[in-house]
Structures are given as structure tokens and as C-alpha cells.
Amino acid sequence: MKNRVVRCLIGFVLLSAFPLQEGLAWGPAGHRIVGHIAEMNLEPRVFKTIQQEFNIKHLANVSTWADAIKKSPYPPDVLHYTNIAVHSRTYRQPRDCPRKRCVTEKIKQYHRVLKTPGASRKSRKEAFKFLVHLVADVHQPMHLGHEKDRGGNDIAVVFQGQPTHLHRVWDSHLIFLNGNTQVQFARNLNQAISPENKKDWPGETPDEWSNESRALVLDYGYRLQFSKGRELSPEYIRKGRGIIEERLQRAGIRLAAMLNRLFKN
Predict the structure, then answer these.
(1) What is the pLDDT of residues 182-213, one digit of tens each?
(2) What pTM did the predictor assign?
(3) The CATH classification of domain 26-149+167-225+238-262, taken from the options 1.10.3720.10, 1.10.575.10, 3.90.550.10, 1.10.357.10
(4) How many helices (H) and strands (E) does the chain have?
């Protein structure tokens, strides 16, 4: 009992030391995996166009840029999450994102930039890098969590013996590579996607992506299961890993479909 209490106290101390922005975007591994899956599903001519226009080798190489610039002296006014009203399961822009700064609306904004004839090369490249990042973010269920706990950032838990917080669990800890490289892991996930899902998933919109994540965080993410103290149970972790793997798959397929449409000409 004493060890359990001490471990939980350590977790809360660690939480208080995290900076405000910590955990507000999917971890680097998640973003790169989504980039790899998307790249595997790009039309060859589209991929070539993207490489030439933006001078990049792989989508994964720019997938974490939007997190890095948050530390710049003048970070862009972009939120990587969306706060839906506490008792609602469905996103409504006038109520939940009136200033259109949230991830749901920013995806639409940067999509419009890339569709705008005559947009500058600088604005197009920035919009492209934001899209690669934010499409992944909106698929992380905790990014549609509650504002009051900052999407799980303020909820201390223990994951396999290590004090952490709930947002970080879903950002990073549930991505289990099982000895694979990120590219191999992404390839395995991509190969597991059925042809039907590759066809059906891109039909959804950013609003619907947000609603999917919202349902998952309410129906499972916040319904914590502990084996002892604040230690997340093996069953919670097992199911959470399954959810995260599918969210990575959906994000990659949807990002690829979006880019294929944008750059098909």
C-alpha cells in the first residue's frame, strides 16, 4: 500500500512539472507512422508532384514540423485539438470553435489554401505541412477530450509501472512497435487495412473524424480501468492499442486521399 501511494504521488508531481503545451499533439512516432501510411497510398504522380513542389523526400520528414514551431517566438494561432461542449458527442462549429482555431477547422482552412489558385509557394508549403500533422491529430481520441482536464493531461495514471498522464498514454504509450521500425510498423498496419475500408474511410469529413474521436474518448478513453492503484489494467491497454492502431490507419488513408485529390492534376 505504501509503495502504491508513493508511486501515485510521484505521478502527480511529474504532472505538475509538465509545461502547458505538453501532450497537446500526437507523439512524434504517431505522426511519422501516419505519414508513412499516407505515403504508401499516394498515387505515384501525386507523390512526385509533392516531392518536387515542397522539396521533401518523405511525408514523415515534415510530420512533426507543426509541433516544433509551437516553440518559436511567434507560434501560429493553431490549436491541435477541439473542445466539444462537455455534455455533447457531436461537433458544432459555432458553439465549439467560434474563432475557427481548433484542429477541425484548421484542417479545412489549410485544405482551402492548397485549393486556392495563385496561393504563394510559402503559404502552400506551410498549409501542406500543417495538413500532414493535423489530420493525424484529429484522429487521436484525447484531442477531442474535455477542456476541464486538458484532454487527459491533468489525469495522472501509471502505465506499466511508470507514472504518466492519460493524454500521453494515448499520444505515445499505446503505440506498441513490438520490435519493428516505424516504417515496418506502418507497413504492417497498411497491409491490414481491407480494400473496403480504403475505399470507405476517405468519404468522411473533418467534422465526422472529430465525432469519431469524440465517441472513442467518451466511450472508452475516459472509462479508466485499473489493476491496482492508478495502474492501467492490461485489458484497458490491450483495447486501447487496438483503437490507436485503427486511428493511425484511418488517419493515413484519409490524409492520402485528401492529397491525391488536391494534387491529382
Answers:
(1) 999 999 999 999 999 999 999 999 999 999 99
(2) 0.89
(3) 1.10.575.10
(4) 12, 4
